[in-house]
Here is the input.
Amino acid sequence: MRWIKSNICILAYPYIRRRAERGKPLVVGVPKESFPGETRVALVPSGVQTLVSKGIDVVLETGCGVAAGYTDEAYREKGAEFVKVRRDLFHASSLVLQVRGAGANPQGACFDLDLMRKNQILIGLLDPLHAPHCLQTFVEMDLGNEDTEADGGYARAMDEEFYRKQRELLSREMGDADVVITTAAVPGKKAPVLITEEMVKRMQNGAVIVDLAAEHGGNCELTKPVKEIVFEGVKIVGPVNLPATVPYHASQLYSKNITTFLTSLIRDGKIDLDSDDEIMKATLVSRDGVIVHEDLKKSVGKKNHG
Here is the structure.
């Protein structure tokens, strides 16, 4: 997800002026990830090569790819430049790429938001529906009396009757299962409980539950995020941020996606935010200090109205 920060004074940083004079006003910056345990990097060396070939300058924070297995020298060979101070990177960049920002990294995002400037663009996994409060520090909200009920789309949670039937179906099968893997998650809401304590009690000794929804509460009511527990002979695993456990290849996939997304927005060397584009509607969180994503507006409105 992505947003544009506004209502902050522009910093006339010399690094930007030099590049503008050279006819390359678009500068993409990649800082180190600050979320605890996040080992991925938003851009790999091949992604740098793609952007540079399109006339875009790429600036990275020193060591940003080391945890993922990418050396500074590998980036330099593809045309990237480096800065040692995070603040300098934000000042130098017209567009910033991150893996986890805003709601996906609430503590680190508070620091980064202070470094951003008017009309700067941030692209990354921002998780705004799970943590809309992270946006309230830098956008003006005028929600009025808008209806806050969810309507349609994949973001809508199913009702309790649906989940009751899911639990009933699962209960019939789990007694003979050796491994159960759950993945159910709803944007902006706690993960639905599909496996109750009583269902776990009926599982065979030595069985394993892998709850991939642990980061948002878990599909098993006994799940403990980041921990492995044993309950009456059943092991329950609650991993979070699995991609960070294989950062080299996970970064390649993420970099490919974010580079393709970014290049699709560029027209004549500039970013073109076409509000009629379907992909733009689905990914643009806020613009000019106003939240424009419909699901997020409703989520924030519901929390504000209690």
Q: What stands out?
A: Residues 160-240 form a domain with the Rossmann fold fold (CATH 3.40.50.720). The chain has two domains: 2-141+245-304, 160-240. Confidence is low (pLDDT under 50) at residues 1-22, 140-155. Residues 26 and 153 are 35 Å apart (CA to CA).
